[in-house]
Amino acid sequence: MASIAIITARGGSKRIPGKNIRDFVGKPIIAYSIEAARESGIFDEVMVSTDSEEIAAAAKKYGAAVPFLRSEKTSNDWATTADVLLEVIENYRIRNRQFERICCIYPTAPFLTGERLREANKVLEDAKAESLMPVVRFSFPPQRGMVIREGRVDYRYPEFRNTRSQDLEVMYHDCGQFYFCKTDAFLKHRTMVTPDTVPFEMSEEEVQDIDNLPDWEMAELKYKMLVQKREGCHVPSV
Known about the structure:
Elements: E1 3-8, E2 23-24, E3 27-28, H1 29-40, E4 45-49, H2 53-61, H3 81-94, E5 101-105, H4 114-127, E6 131-137, E7 146-149, E8 152-155, E9 172-174, E10 178-182, H5 183-189, E11 197-201, H6 213-230
Parallel strand pairs: 1-4, 1-5, 6-11
Antiparallel strand pairs: 2-3, 5-10, 6-9, 6-10, 7-8
């Protein structure tokens, strides 16, 4: 089954300037996504979709293809990920290349590895599902969440206020790293999360939203600790 990894990396980040090629523990953060996709060995093509010549140059340096730049339509603040993927699929079709499966990978996913991509790909194949989404458990039960109304705190779901955490249904959230989907299913539903999506559970130490500079700093700390753990090094207590 021909597969393509599409790394979506628009330029012009406002909260973290130069976010997609900003140095993360020694190299541009997008390099981690490219390297993970290439090291997985499961893709016939690893490409970066971007509107930035600077990002394109960095992507090529680390081994990704950038056969075209994004159009103005898919480079504005209102363009969706689906819009970007549709454009990529169409541009490859024009070049007489078609893929039966696509994997959308975010450019700010330094915890992602080739091994994880291979594992997820096998889960999808074994399940014979249309798509796959990596998920992580909420560290605190959302059912016990609080809201503030008129300056006072209250339970959002008062029916669960006295329910033991272990008796509540486990809930998950999107890891925000990658998604697998059969191309025909994506074209039909216009989303990577189709009605026939299987989960791929990941640990909290492998996941970190990176939306602002404090997130970035936390991600670097977690990444360094994860590398030390993988290499069997002692991590000093703090």
